[in-house]
Design brief:
The chain is of the alpha+beta class. It folds into 2 domains: 132 residues, Glutaredoxin; 46 residues, no CATH class. The structure holds benzoic acid. Benzoic acid binds next to helix 3.
Length: 218
């Protein structure tokens, strides 16, 4: 095996355990798994401090911090910047946007965490992280991944919706259909046996399309 191939780390994927790490953040040194505790986590990377699109994203995450907390979800950001840069940018965002950033920002100057999570996409940039979102559940399993390029800000409504959909699916043993929003009908998992086919036929309360597609209210 060549040096290059041995150094390539597979990017974490849905279903993998979130790689653990210790890092310096704006809220002190953390060991990720301990900091997570029993909560859900949105671990996100932004390309760089003091950049316009990232500023809008950090401010919006901050405004929604309580909404995420209600979903037992902690936020944590990361970029390949120093702790001094993160601290200065926080202060600047307070001045220019009147926003306090309540969640920690990881200072990843040595790219340790960015490499561990595959946040650097060299075709886009070899020196900054793209806009990644890792949704990690309380068992530390990666449940969803979103990647955005450098020049397009994320859709925060979608990130919140994704967490609500995952938590609703877990709590009720269901799936969620296209463009699902809380309060709308959910999808009954398709049957795997003839008994399950018969069981679904017996439900007069289901919105029934065929044996494999049934929707119901929660
Ligand atoms: C931005 O956040 O505005 C940005 C950062 C890196 C590249 C392009 C845009």
């Amino acid at each position: 095996m060549t040096e290059t191939t041995t150094n390539i780390r597979p990017m974490p994927r849905i279903g993998d355990i979130a790689p653990d790490f210790t890092a310096i953040t704006t809220h002190g040194e953390i060991t990720f798994s301990e900091w997570q505790g029993k909560d859900w986590v949105v671990l996100f990377s932004h390309p760089a401090d003091f950049t316009p699109v990232c500023s809008t994203e950090l401010a919006d995450f901050a405004k929604r911090h309580q909404d995420f907390a209600k979903k037992k979800t902690k936020l944590i950001g990361l970029s390949i910047d120093s702790i001094h840069s993160h601290l200065a940018w926080r202060q600047n965002l307070k001045q220019i946007m009147d926003v306090e950033i309540p969640y920690p920002l990881i200072a990843d100057l040595d790219m340790k965490v960015a490499s561990l999570y595959g946040m650097i996409h060299p075709g886009e940039s070899a020196t900054v992280t793209v806009r990644t979102v890792f949704v990690i559940d309380p068992k530390r399993t990666i449940r969803a991944l979103i990647y955005y390029p450098l020049n397009v800000g994320r859709n925060m409504d979608e990130i919140e919706r994704l967490i609500t959909a995952l938590q609703t699916a877990d709590a009720n043993g269901v799936a969620t259909p296209v463009n699902w929003k809380p309060g709308e009908k959910v999808v009954v998992p398709p049957p795997k046996t003839v008994d399950e086919v018969a069981e679904r036929e017996g439900h007069t309360d289901y919105e029934r399309y065929d044996f494999y597609l049934n929707k119901k209210d929660l």
